[in-house]
C-alpha cells in the first residue's frame, strides 16, 4: 500500500511555540507551573503536560503562585491582567497570528469600529478576540447571522485564524456587495489555508484519508469535513485504537493528515500502525519480512552489524589485516550499550517510537541479560588483544552505563546538570566518540603497525558517519526528546541549522575520502567509500522533501549506510586480491 503523509500535517508554528514554551518551562523551572485553560486542542498533549506537572486551570484564583502559561488560542485582556493580579508570573504563548488579529480588533475598537468576527462562538480563540473589541464585537457563525446584523456606520471584518477559507470568502463577497465601506482583513492563518488546500489535492489521488487530531479541534474537524466532501473514505481519529485497520487492507493508497494541534509522535504512530497493519506478508526462510525488519531494528542487532561492518571498513582503510576480533568487539559493545540505554530511556521512546518502547518493556529482562552477556564477551575479546584495549573498552562501557544515572548526589547539588544526559548535546557527542574509538582507534591500537597517518582520517570517517546517523535520528525524535528534557543538537540549533550542518559534514567526508586515497594516506578503498556519505546526503534531501517518511523503511535506510561501508570494503578487498 502507498501511504502519503500530507506535508502540512502536524503542529503549526503557533502550537509548536506554545507546546515548546510549556515544556521548556516545566523542564527548567522548579516552582509550580500551570496553563490557563487547555494549552491546545489535543488530549494526548494535555495528558502529557499533566503528567509532567503542568495542569490546566479553568478559573483564576484570588491568589496564585508560580508560573501560568497562556494558551495558544489567547485570552481576553482582562483575564491576562487578572492572572497577573493574582500573583502569577505570566508566560504568554498566544500564537503570533492570533495576536495580530487581537491588535487589529483593539486598534479599531478604540476608533469606535464594530468588529464582526467570523468564527465558532464557543472557541477559546474567538472568546479571546471578542475581549479586544470592548463590547463592540459580534461573533458570526453563519452567513444568515451576518445578514441579521444591523448596518454599522463603521465596522471591520475578521476571521478566526482556523476558519474555513471557503466560508470566509463567501462572507467577504457578501460584505463587499452590501457593505463596501466595511474594512475587511484576511486573518486566516496561511498554515490553515495550506492545510485545507493540501487535503483537497491529496484526496483526489488516494482511496482513503485518515485525519489525526483532537475531536474538539476546529481546524481538524474542518479537515475531516473537506475529506468527506471529496467523496473518499474518511476516518477522524485521535489515536490508533480508533482505526479499524481491516477497512484499509484492501486499498491501494491512503493519505494521512493531521490538525495543527497534533504532535509528530502521534502522526508517526499512526503511520507505523498502518504500515505494519497493511504490509504484505513476504517471507524470508519462513519469517515474515516485516517482522524480521522490526526485530533487527528494535533489538539493535542491525545497528550492531553496522558497527562490525564499519570497523572492518576502517581497518581496510588503514591497511590492518587482523580485523575480525576488532569487528566483534565493536559489534558487541554497540549492541550492549544501545540496549542498556534504550532500557533506561523508555520515557522518550514512548513518544518517539511507542512500538520500540513496548518491545523493551515486554522483553526487558531477556534484553538486559543479552546486553550484559554481549558486553562481557566483548570485554573478554578486548582483553585478548591486550590490557590497554581492555581498559579502554571497560572505561567506555562504564561511561555508557552511567549515562542516565545521577553522577552527583542530590545532597551535594540540586541543580539541573546531575547526569551526563543532562549536558546539552552529550548523547550525540558521546555516541560519536565511543563509536569512533571502537571502530577506528581500537583496531589501530591492537594492530602490529599501531597508529599511522591513516588513523586520523579513518577516525574522522567513523565519527562523521555515526554523528550524521545519530543526529538524523535526533531530528526525527525532536518532540519526544524535548518532552523528556533531552537537549539534542536539533533542539539546541533548530532542525534547519542542524540539517545544514549535516549536509556540510557529509560533503566534507565525501571529498576527504578520495583525496586522502589519491595522496596515499588511505588505501584505494577511499576511492569508492565516498558513496556512503553521498547516499546519506541524498537520503537527507529526500526526507526534507517528504520523499521518504519517518518509519521502519527510513530507519532501515539510515542504518544501512554503515552496513554498506563494510560491503564496499569487502568488495574492494576481493577485487584487489
Strands, helices and their partners?
Blueprint: E1 2-5, H1 13-28, E2 33-36, H2 43-51, E3 56-57, E4 67-70, H3 77-85, E5 89-92, H4 96-109, E6 114-118, H5 124-131, E7 137-140, H6 143-148, E8 155-159, H7 165-178, E9 183-184, H8 190-203, E10 208-212, H9 218-229, E11 233-237, E12 253-258, H10 264-277, E13 283-284, E14 287-288, H11 289-298, H12 301-317, H13 324-343, H14 346-352, H15 354-362, H16 364-385, H17 387-401, H18 426-445, H19 455-476, H20 478-483, H21 489-493, H22 495-518, H23 526-529, H24 531-544, H25 552-576
Parallel strand pairs: 1-12, 2-3, 2-4, 4-5, 6-7, 6-8, 8-9, 10-11, 10-12
Antiparallel strand pairs: 13-14
Helix pairs in contact: 4-5, 8-9, 12-13, 12-18, 12-19, 12-25, 13-16, 13-17, 13-18, 14-15, 16-17, 17-18, 18-19, 19-22, 19-24, 19-25, 22-24, 24-25
Task: Tell me about this structure.
This protein has 25 helices and 14 strands. It has 577 residues and is an alpha/beta fold. The strands form 4 sheets. Strands 1-12-10-11 form a 4-stranded parallel sheet, with helices on both faces. Strands 3-2-4-5 form a 4-stranded parallel sheet, with helices on both faces. Strands 7-6-8-9 form a 4-stranded parallel sheet, with helices on both faces. β10, α9 and β11 (233-237) form a beta-alpha-beta unit. The longest helix is centred in the C-terminal third of the chain and has 25 residues, at 552-576. The model has no long low-confidence stretch (mean pLDDT 89).
Amino acid at each position: 500500500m502507498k501511504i502519503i503523509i500530507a506535508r502540512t500535517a502536524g503542529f503549526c508554528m503557533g502550537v509548536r511555540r506554545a507546546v515548546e514554551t510549556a515544556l521548556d518551562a516545566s523542564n527548567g523551572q522548579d516552582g509550580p507551573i500551570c496553563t490557563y485553560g487547555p494549552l491546545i486542542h489535543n488530549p494526548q498533549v494535555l495528558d502529557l503536560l499533566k503528567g509532567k506537572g503542568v495542569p490546566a486551570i479553568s478559573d483564576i484564583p484570588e491568589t496564585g503562585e508560580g508560573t501560568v502559561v497562556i494558551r495558544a488560542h489567547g485570552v481576553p485582556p482582562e483575564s491576562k491582567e487578572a492572572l497577573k493580579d493574582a500573583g502569577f508570573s505570566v508566560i504568554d504563548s498566544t500564537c503570533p497570528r492570533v495576536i495580530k488579529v487581537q491588535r487589529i480588533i483593539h486598534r479599531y475598537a478604540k476608533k469606535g469600529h464594530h468588529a464582526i468576527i467570523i468564527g465558532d462562538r464557543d472557541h477559546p480563540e474567538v472568546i479571546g478576540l471578542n475581549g479586544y473589541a470592548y463590547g463592540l464585537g459580534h461573533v458570526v457563525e453563519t452567513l444568515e447571522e451576518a445578514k441579521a446584523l444591523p448596518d454599522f456606520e463603521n465596522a471591520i471584518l475578521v476571521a478566526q485564524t482556523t476558519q474555513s477559507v471557503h466560508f470566509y470568502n463567501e462572507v467577504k463577497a457578501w460584505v463587499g456587495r452590501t457593505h463596501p465601506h466595511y474594512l475587511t482583513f484576511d486573518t486566516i492563518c496561511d498554515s490553515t489555508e495550506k492545510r485545507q488546500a493540501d487535503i483537497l489535492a491529496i484526496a483526489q489521488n488516494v482511496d482513503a484519508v485518515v485525519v489525526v487530531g483532537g475531536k474538539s479541534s476546529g481546524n481538524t474537524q474542518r479537515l475531516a469535513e473537506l475529506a468527506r466532501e471529496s467523496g473518499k473514505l474518511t476516518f477522524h481519529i485521535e489515536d490508533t485504537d480508533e482505526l479499524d485497520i481491516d477497512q484499509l487492507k484492501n486499498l491501494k493508497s491512503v493519505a494521512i493528515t493531521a490538525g495543527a494541534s497534533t504532535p509528530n509522535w502521534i502522526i508517526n504512530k499512526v503511520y507505523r500502525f498502518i504500515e505494519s497493519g497493511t504490509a504484505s506478508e513476504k517471507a524470508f526462510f519462513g519469517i515474515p519480512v516485516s517482522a524480521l525488519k522490526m526485530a533487527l531494528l528494535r533489538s539493535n542487532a542491525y545497528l550492531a552489524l553496522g558497527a562490525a561492518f564499519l570497523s572492518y571498513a576502517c581497518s581496510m582503510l588503514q591497511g590492518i589485516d587482523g580485523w575480525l576480533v576488532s569487528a566483534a568487539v565493536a559489534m558487541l559493545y554497540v549492541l550492549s550499550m544501545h540496549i542498556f540505554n534504550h532500557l533506561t530511556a523508555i520515557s522518550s521512546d514512548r513518544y518517539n517510537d511507542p512500538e520500540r518502547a513496548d518491545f523493551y518493556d515486554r522483553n526487558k529482562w531477556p534484553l538486559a541479560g543479552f546486553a550484559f552477556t554481549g558486553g562481557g564477551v566483548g570485554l573478554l575479546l578486548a582483553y585478548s588483544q591486550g590490557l590497554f584495549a581492555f581498559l579502554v573498552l571497560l572505561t567506555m562501557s562504564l561511561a555508557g552505563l552511567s549515562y542516565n544515572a545521577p553522577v552527583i548526589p542530590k545532597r551535594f547539588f540540586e541543580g539541573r546538570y546531575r547526569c551526563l544526559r543532562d549536558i546539552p548535546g552529550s548523547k550525540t557527542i558521546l555516541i560519536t566518540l565511543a563509536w569512533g574509538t571502537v571502530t577506528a582507534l581500537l583496531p589501530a591500537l591492537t594492530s602490529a603497525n599501531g597508529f599511522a597517518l591513516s588513523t586520523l582520517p579513518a577516525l574522522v570517517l567513523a565519527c562523521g558517519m555515526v554523528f550524521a546517523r545519530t543526529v538524523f535520528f535526533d531530528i526525527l525524535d525532536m518532540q519526544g526528546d524535548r518532552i523528556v528534557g533531552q537537549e539534542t543538537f536539533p533542539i539546541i540549533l533548530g532542525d534547519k541549522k542542524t540539517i545544514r550542518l549535516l549536509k556540510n559534514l557529509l560533503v566534507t567526508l565525501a571529498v576527504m575520502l578520495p583525496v586522502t586515497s589519491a595522496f596515499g594516506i588511505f588505501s584505494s578503498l577511499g576511492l569508492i567509500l565516498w558513496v556512503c556519505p553521498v547516499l546519506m546526503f541524498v537520503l537527507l534531501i529526500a526526507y526534507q522533501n517528504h520523499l521518504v517518511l519517518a518509519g521502519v523503511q527510513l530507519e532501515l535506510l539510515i542504518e544501512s549506510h554503515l552496513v554498506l561501508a563494510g560491503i564496499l570494503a569487502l568488495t574492494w578487498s576481493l577485487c584487489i586480491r
